[in-house]
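Ticket #4471: structure output looks truncated?

Reporter: J.K.
Steps to reproduce: submitted the chain below (83 residues) through the standard prediction queue, then opened the result file.
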Amino acid sequence: MRACNPNFLRALWPAFLVALPATALLFSAVNPREVMLFGAPAPISDLGMYTVTFFVLWLLCWAASALNLWLFGGPPPEPQWDD
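Returned output as attached by the reporter:
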């Protein structure tokens, strides 16, 4: 069994930094009290809506960052100098 790829863990911090302004931008346009889930008002407080939305956005940003790191692989190999 292989250990977790550290590239996936490296993607957490940039995803966190992107999720913060994304949540602020989202809730500058949307009032959390007006959010509807399946046609009914969301049964959650404003702070709870902010929290859940932040973690969902963090997860989405992390997935995008991790996918990017996975697709492009690790750092390029060191050049071999012939002496």
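Triage note (M.O.): checked the attachment and the full token line is present. The chain has one domain: 7-71.
Status: closed, working as intended.
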